[in-house]
Amino acid sequence: WRVITSDSRLAVSLNQCRCQHPHDFTHGIISGNLTAQTSFYPQSMCETIAASLYPGIVAGHVPAMSCLPVQSTGHCCRNQPHSDTPDGEAIYQEWVDNPTVSALIADIDALGLLEYAALGASEGPDVAAAVTRLLSRKEMMSNPAALKAVRDEAAGLESVGTWDLNSVREKEEVAEQARKTGIKVHFGQLMTIAGEKFAEMAEIYRKIKGRIVYRGDTGKDEYGAAAMYQNMSASPTSVQGLNACLAYGEIPGHTTTTADAIKAYVQALLKSKYATWIELPPELRPTWWRDNFVRPVVALIKSLYGHPESGAHWENHLHSILKDMGGVVSDEFPGNYWFEDTKLLLCVYVDDFTLAGPKEKHADFWIRLGAKVDIEPPAPLGRILGRQHDRVKLKHISDENAAMGASAEALAFNMSDYAQQCVDLYLSLPEAKKLRHAATPFAPEGSLIAADDDIQGELAGKACSMLMKNLWLGRLARPDLIKPIGDLASKVQEWTRNCDKMLYRLICYIHSTKHYKLVGVVQDKPEDLKLRLYVDADFCGDRLDSKSTNGGFLVLVGPNTWFPLAWVSKKQTCTSGSTTESEVVSLAYSLFLEALPSVSHWEVLLGREIVLEVMEDNQAAIIVVKSGWSAKLRHIKRTHKVNLNRLSEIFADEEHYQLVYTDTNEQAADIFTKALEPQKWGNALNLLGIRTDI
């Protein structure tokens, strides 16, 4: 390729890619069947051009790269090296001699944007970054350290009996035997992976980590057909189950601790329906195999990562251990185990264990579990599922609930770093716009033009990944985001220019409110606790199809307790004919989806029947539910699949199920059903227990 450019940075970058050959060398002429190979630019050429012309986009974001603030210790002239730096002259000369740096400085100087600041003489604190670079197979095979890391990983897996080297046989021999006997077998392959941790640091600080996984895409049977695995699945805990566990751990006299299983999957046997034989990568095969086998295979014994059944086998293995220890799995929240003798609740998410209950019972439990499961030393409550749990002291703000009052110790759900990642993901897009302050996540109605509903948005191909990342933030720690995310998620298949505007507003709001934290406080005795469900609905609130939206907010409450457990916002499946109808449908949805399962769960935890308060701000809906019949709502059993008699039977037990009227200004679920005005937004956040001052 011959490139002519007026961009000095591009010229310098391409100059480093010049052909290395004698001056008298002549390139061949591409013609005939070789012409098709010139249809596209080479990848390295594309990367060089993009990085040179658009450095802010290509290199504007480095995941998990830690930063330190520049220390203000005076100025340093460009032409004068740092006097406090031992090798300052050498460093300066190295930069001056670098043509790429010189070109960059010239370009930035021309724009008048270059500022110079000197680093302080004193060394700052060491900061551990988390940049891991995946090595290509060619790099791994040519790097002795990488091969050693992979072989060390293999030795560790072999030491726990993950596969049996003594069972080595020729693959064709095993397949032929299976065809003759009619006993099916599965064949698979292992894949080695090497990653360089701390890749951004000097070489002496880098560490190469090896990984070995089962390639699920290569599974075949003895006839070469795709392997048919068992229809198995795992049931880790839900976010609601985790929140209930944390709330139980906040009861006075209780605590919460966590631990991780070490190489969890390979602690379980691979109990597949058919025997599985695997091919080891060449770098893991014993040398004596070369002269004795063509395609050697060995028996896979343990549930290695990557095997489609591994997750289920590990879960079944752990379930049997916890059952032997006296644990009873929760029917309402799979992955949660109750130990009646110690009053402990264990929440399991794959290999993450969260234990809540009486403080004095934790140490003995971890010792007993550690005798049967290989786990890391237990630690206090910290980060779970990407959500950091901080102990905070609260000042009194208002009297809506205990989370808004003063508290010596409360639990804050902190995902501010993840919120920044959501913002960075948007800003990394070429279509991104400069962010502004936003008081709410909803775009003003006047900005959504009807004509833009018929024009495809610029972010149509990238909206799904953006929304899914934001949804995790909303589900775990930011209920104020659930409604706008749900609105946009329903339009992914028909993304419009108005959707672009709505997404932009949502990102602006996240950017403006990264410091917002949902707070939970439990300062009452178990006998003073009860569940409260806020339910609400809008009427024909969707701008395009006039369907209503269900909103629900479940919280553990007491005189000095407020701990959010679950929140929902979901568009109704068909159009409601009245406000009362939409409210009744919303009540039924949240009651059966979240409240009643939580009632059963908490009755086990507290050892007594628990009261459920349902807060409704529509008096007509309360009358209809209590009576169990309405002439105007006789159709909802068919349209919404809601049975009024069923609701009436539940609230007939007024001692334990109480349907209570609440003022609209005190309806915590209101935020999940409609786009509230900015003047109402602060009160809506307070009703949820979201603090903006910590």
Q: What gross morphology would you assign?
A: globular
Low-confidence stretches: 70-89, 108-129
Major sheet, described briefly? Answer: 10 strands, mixed
Radius of gyration: 31 Å
Please count the helical segments.
20
The tally of beta strands, per DSSP, is 22
Mean pLDDT score: 87
Tell me the strand percentage band: 15-25%
How far is the first residue's CA from the last residue's CA?
57 Å
**What's the helical proportion of residues?**
25-40%
What does the oligomeric state look like here? single chain
Derived from helix and strand composition plus strand pairing, the structural class reads alpha+beta
Structural descriptors:
about 700 residues; alpha+beta; 6-stranded mixed sheet
Can you put this structure into words, describing what you see?
The chain is an alpha+beta fold and 694 residues long. Helices cover 32% and strands 21% of the residues. It is built from 20 helices and 22 strands. Strands 13, 14, 15, 16, 17, 18, 19, 20, 21 and 22 form a 10-stranded mixed sheet that branches. Strands 1, 2, 3, 4, 6 and 7 form a 6-stranded mixed sheet that branches. Strands 8-9-10-11-5-12 form a 6-stranded antiparallel sheet. Helix 1 (8-15) packs antiparallel against helix 2, helix 1 (8-15) packs antiparallel against helix 5 (99-111) and helix 13 (463-476) runs antiparallel to helix 14. The longest helix has 28 residues, at 579-606. The radius of gyration is 31 Å and the shape is globular. Mean pLDDT is 87; it is low at 70-89 and 108-129.
